[in-house]
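stage 2 :: seqdesign
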């Protein structure tokens, strides 16, 4: 175990949330293994297993979409990241530090984009759960009511902000100075580079929904919020 590779993640991911559906049972994985080399000499990063089966989010998100999104898009970001850091000072740097130290650096845009997209997708899979949606846990509900007046108002703001992202990007529920906020980011940008703590995210790159919803981004976002969003994960990230 290389302590330099252990991950802060800035959002207190709970290892118990990291469940491998393929085994048919909850399997705890150490966060440190999340973005750590699988073995000496292997590429530095490996794809984190999906926390559910590829068809577990149907009918909201099809197995075909998950297969492409996870197996092709997410993997491509990881492969590019591994190529870009091999033999550089970034090879032994925690992923969040790579992202923070390359954000806004024009000559490091390729590395930033692939590192951040690798992180964003790993976070996105955990922002969804087959039995999601519904009422948020009490502590999160209280925060929502403080910041937005009601859970429904918070959900509406999250939907509206996410849908309105121009082009590719992400909608986020975050903590900013201890207060719940909703933000959107373009392309690979991630809120923790601006001091905000991500609680959950919704991917609105077209590859996330186009096979299932074509141009109907709003329908995809609404269905995710109603049926898949993982409020427990957001609560755990509130720390
Ligand atoms: Fe994506």
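stage 2 :: out
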């Amino acid at each position: 175990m290389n302590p330099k590779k252990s991950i802060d993640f800035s959002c207190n991911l709970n290892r118990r949330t990291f469940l491998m559906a393929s085994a048919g049972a909850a399997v705890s994985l150490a966060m440190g293994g999340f973005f750590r080399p699988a073995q000496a000499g292997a590429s530095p990063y490996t794809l984190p297993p999906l926390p559910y089966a590829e068809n577990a989010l149907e009918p909201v998100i099809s197995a075909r979409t998950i297969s492409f999104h996870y197996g092709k898009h997410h993997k491509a970001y990881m492969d590019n990241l591994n190529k870009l850091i091999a033999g550089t000072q970034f090879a032994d740097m925690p992923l969040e530090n790579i992202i923070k130290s390359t954000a806004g650096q024009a000559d490091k845009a390729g590395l930033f984009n692939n590192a951040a997209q690798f992180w964003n997708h790993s976070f996105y899979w955990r922002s969804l759960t087959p039995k999601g949606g519904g009422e948020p846990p009490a502590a999160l509900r209280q925060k929502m009511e403080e910041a937005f007046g009601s859970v429904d108002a918070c959900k509406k703001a999250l939907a509206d902000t996410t849908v309105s992202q121009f082009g590719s990007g992400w909608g986020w529920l975050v903590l900013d100075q201890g207060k719940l906020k909703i933000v959107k980011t373009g392309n690979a940008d991630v809120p923790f580079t601006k001091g905000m703590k991500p609680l959950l995210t919704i991917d609105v790159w077209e590859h996330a929904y186009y096979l299932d919803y074509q141009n109907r981004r709003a329908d995809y976002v609404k269905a995710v919020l109603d049926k898949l969003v993982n409020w427990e994960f957001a609560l755990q990230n509130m720390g």
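stage 3 :: structure notes
- The chain has a mean pLDDT of 85.
- The chain has two domains: 5-126, 138-238.
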